[in-house]
Amino acid sequence: MTPPVDIHTAASRTVSHSWDQNNLSTSPTITFQSPPNSWGGALAHRVAPKQLKPFNTQDIKILLLENVNTTGQEILRGQGYQVEALKTSLPEDQLIAKIRDVHVIGIRSKTKLNERVLREAKNLLVVGCFCIGTNQVDLEYAARHGISVFNSPFANSRSVAELVIAEIITLARQLGDRSNEMHRGTWNKVSAKCWEIRGKTLGIVGYGHIGSQLSVLAEAMGMNVIYYDVVTLMALGTSRQVPTLENLLEEADFVTLHVPDLPETRGMISTAQFEKMKIGSYLINASRGTVVDIPALVKAMRSGKVAGAALDVYPNEPAANGDYFTNNLNQWAEDLRSLTNIILTPHIGGSTEEAQRAIGIEVADALVRYINQGITLGSVNMPEAQLRSLTLDEPNHARVIYIHRNVPGVLRKVNEILGDHNVDKQISDSKGDVAYLMADISNVRYEEIKDITDNLEALSSCIMTRVLY
Ligand SMILES: NC(=O)c1ccc[n+]([C@@H]2O[C@H](COP(=O)([O-])OP(=O)(O)OC[C@H]3O[C@@H](n4cnc5c(N)ncnc54)[C@H](O)[C@@H]3O)[C@@H](O)[C@H]2O)c1
Ligand SMILES: O=C(O)CC[C@@H](O)C(=O)O
User: What Gene3D superfamilies does UniProt report for this protein, alphabetically (predicted)?
Assistant: First the structure.
């Protein structure tokens, strides 16, 4: 798990901050300085590169897939990292070949980082999901192997909520069908089964970032809002939480899904749930493709139970723009396409300029903070740990990061190893089986860093050690 180090250039490394570039928050002081002259003197005599945990930013290799926004790419390139950015996801064999080499991978919803892929990722330090969902990553496996995962928890929530509002009106007025008919040259002026949305009931399943935002927008347009969530949550406006999913299905004219992909949410809307829904109601799914049983939806629409549906997400999605969405990918694709009043969109709920720019900045900043400073704030699979930045007037300091199994007695052993140095500050936290320790130590000579690293790595609890200086 050691990023390669060119020890000659390590001496002149400086690290700047993307926060400064983007004016996103108050600028922290410069964090990691070049090693002091005494270290440089020691380095100057070395000929062969020596593998140590500290790295040069230029050595960090990053692979970005799925057209990560240029805002994110620029932040990462601005750090001096080597960045390769591809517009698509990759087939698993190609992904495995590439992931072996990189320290950081940036993905969106399409790339599956399962155990098989992560097992090959021998150099990987961190994953950036440039989206909300993290179900495409085996978070537990990653944590157990010291790989931290970051996402952008709400930068595209508004975009999704706005799309759903558009879809509610589009379905209620059968706009998709009327537009398709006009495109084919047919004038079909109808009002039968076309409705206003005022006074209708919107049932939101999952009242998190997106669901609650949608609640406010829908009420502003005169809808009544009810919601179902596994957690008891404060109702916004005059919306009302209902105790069960069945209650929601029985009462709602429009049902919209905003739950994460979890074992409990897979197939959450299937035959039994369609039976509970009102005749002539509508279903919208912009959460994850696994949440709705599509053959059951096809049946419910053919029978007239469901008057319209909007789907943005599917169990299997094509890898790239221009790819086909056919029965080869999902065996019911043609059935879906044959239905009327169904809106099919290619997973674009969060695809707006605003959302993608914001996500690019947020996730790239989290990656920079983690790579350069070891800060895990916002990580979805590691304990969150932060220490004040080291500053230029702390010349002989090093930051020790020790990711380890969460077992008794580790802190004592770590502090024995660090004991000869002054531990200025230290933080340790755990999440499940994995614990994360960060310690800033002073009066460290460059030669001592290898000893510290070797000693920590020799502990049976060790998952990954990094020393930043
Ligand atoms: N279509 C898109 O482009 C797009 C964009 C963003 C997010 N998403 C998807 O939407 C999902 C929701 O996003 P969010 O930001 O609102 O998430 P969130 O975590 O803020 O909210 C999810 C809510 O669902 C609730 N929940 C979990 N399990 C539940 C269950 N079994 N029954 C009822 N409620 C349950 C949670 O308690 C939470 O309140 C994401 O996980 C992601 O998969 C899709
Ligand atoms: O942009 C994407 O690929 C994913 C969008 C959305 O599903 C998310 O999880 O944020």
Answer: 3.30.70.260, NAD(P)-binding Rossmann-like Domain
